[in-house]
Amino acid sequence: MARRTMVLSAILQVAGYDARAWRRPDSRAEEIGTLGVILETAQRFEGAKLDSVFMADTLSGRPLLSGDVKLGAPYEPVTALSAVAAGTSHIGLMLTMSTTFNHPFTLARQLGALDVLSGGRVGWNIVTSSSAQENYGIELPSKVDRYRRAAEFVEVVRGLWSAWSDDAVIVDREAGRWLDPSLIQGIDHTGEFFRVEGFTNQRRSPQGHPVLIQAGQSSSGLDFGADVADVVYTVQPQKAKAIEYYRAYKANVASRGRNPDHVTILPGLSPYIGDTEKEAREKFESLDDYMDFEATRKVFESLLEVDLSSVALDEKIPLEYFENIPDAMVGRFPAFRDLTVEEDYSLRDVLVSFRSVAGHSTMVGTASQIADRMVDWFESRACDGFSLNAPVFPDSVEAICDKLVPELQTRGYFRTEYEESTLRGHLGLPVPPAWDRA
Fold first, then answer.
1. CA 223 to mean position of chain CA atoms
2. DSSP string, 388-417
3. Could you give the dihedral angle defined by the CA atoms of residues 67, 126, 426 and 398, in that order, rounded to the nearest 10 degrees?
4. What are the CA-CA distances from residue 394 to residues 110, 268, 435 (Å)?
5. What kind and span of H or E run contains 375?
6. Which contacts of 42-48 are long-range, i.e. CB under 8 A and separated by 24 or more positions?
7. For 20, which of 161, 268, 290, 392 could close a Cys bridge (C-beta 3.0–4.6 Å)?
8. Are 110 and 95 in contact (CB under 8 A)?
9. How far apart are CA 20 and CA 227, in angstroms?
10. Of 56, 149, 143, which Cα lies nearest the Cα of 97?
11. Distance between terminal CA atoms of the chain?
């Protein structure tokens, strides 16, 4: 069997994925929210031949008030990545948009247009928001309703994206027809949440339509992703559990009549890279200088909806505190429970993990050492690649591009040149057909 190559995506987070990193004197915190720094970073990742960059999003700006620049998300993804598209040529552009606070026609038009303008490089991270309802003046629907709405939302969006034939644009100057109307078939959808008739005014993308991404880890999220996702982001800090998750997810995809090879599973990875293991460890530990344990404890408590005031920092969190995890946190907090039980993490360790990598896998060492572990995960079928979370900006971006990726390239586990121009091409995914070829 020919050896597969990894998929590598990178979070486009110029505050640093470690929530404390922006406070370092060598950060570029003054530039956060501007175009230059994200464009430069996307171009660096494109120079390393990564498959994609990913811009996460949070609709509420409230985290900014408490100094959380990472979670506060100072960029609006559609406008930001539209600008980045103009300054890049091959790297995929993945972004988050909510099905809870958007309309499917508007989203289909925005992302369909960006996909065409970028030459087929867009991916849509489908989320069902669990907060920010106050910004829209509505009551947040139940989790069950949010996922039912999301399923119908995606159905409508895909229908709109498939309405134009690949051959619809004919440019018949003599007859005065830019397109052939018979090669557009609008939708006529009436459902529980939406009534949508017609089609968007965007021609088909070179990759058919944007890649669909899903990151939910609740049972509802897992089933939804198995139904629709091309790419799955997941929180898997332990290799054994990652293998179990990978096997179960691929089986779930197959049970729904889909090809599991067409679903790419990417656990998050925060690599702290040094020229020596000692240097890498020092980089990781240096961020403790910016750690406010009591403030972090309060944030952790509010998200988990528990009171940890009786637990000392060097004690383990009692397991009963993880018994009733809120719906909004079910994706990440089981990872902290597992680290507490199986890795003997203290409350201090959990808070550091929460603040630094948000429960994702942490690898500290030289580029060679980290590449060893990545290859081990990959060959053990724990993943199809990784979502790289550069913990410190810009240092970690430079280390990923100049040290880690070349190490993987030398070993034959990652491309040295782009072979395709679309995101689906990078991922080895088939192009979804238009209505006339479905």
1. 18
2. E--SSTTHHHHHIIIIIHHHHHHTTSS-SS
3. 0
4. 30, 18, 45
5. helix 367-379
6. 42/12, 42/84, 42/87, 42/88, 42/91, 42/93, 43/87, 43/88, 44/397, 44/398, 44/401, 45/10, 45/12, 45/91, 45/397, 45/401, 46/88, 46/89, 46/90, 46/91, 47/401, 48/400, 48/401, 48/405
7. 290
8. no
9. 37
10. 56
11. 31
Tokens 């939804």 belong to residue: 224
Burial of 307 (0-12, 13-18, 19+ CB in 10 A): exposed
Q: In the chain, what are the domains?
A: 7-272+361-437 (3.20.20.30)
**Residue 309: count of CB within 10 angstroms of its CB:** 9
Q: Which amino acid would we find at residue 356?
A: S
Per-residue pLDDT of the chain (438 residues; tens, 9 = 90+): 344 799 999 999 999 999 999 999 999 999 999 999 999 999 999 999 999 999 999 888 888 887 888 888 899 999 999 999 999 999 999 999 999 999 999 999 999 999 999 999 999 999 987 777 888 888 888 888 999 999 999 999 999 999 999 999 999 999 999 999 999 999 999 999 999 999 999 999 999 999 999 986 667 778 889 999 999 999 999 999 999 999 999 999 999 999 999 999 999 999 999 999 999 999 999 998 898 888 888 888 887 888 999 999 999 998 888 877 766 566 667 788 888 888 899 999 999 888 888 889 999 999 999 999 999 999 999 999 999 999 999 999 999 999 999 999 999 999 999 999 999 999 999 999 999 998
- Number of residues in the chain: 438
Q: State how far the Cα of 272 lies from the Cα of 395, in Å rounded to an integer.
A: 10
Buried b (16+ CB within 10 A) or exposed e, 316-334: ebeeebbeebeebbbbbbb
CB 54 within 8 A of CB 40: no
**Contact 44/12 with Cβ under 8 angstroms?**
no
Continuous segment of H or E residues that includes residue 3: none
Contact 225, 214 (CB under 8 A): yes
**Burial class (CB within 10 angstroms; exposed 0-12, middle 13-18, buried 19+) of 281:** middle
Dihedral in degrees, nearest 10, Cα atoms 276, 281, 287, 293: 180
CA distances from 157 to 116, 290, 427 (A): 15, 44, 21
Report the predicted TM-score, pTM, of the whole model to 2 decimal places: 0.92
CB distance 59 to 40 below 8 Å: no
Is the backbone peptide bond immediately before 141 cis, with ω within 30 degrees of 0? no
Q: At what angle do helices 77-86 and 35-47 cross, to 10 degrees?
A: 60
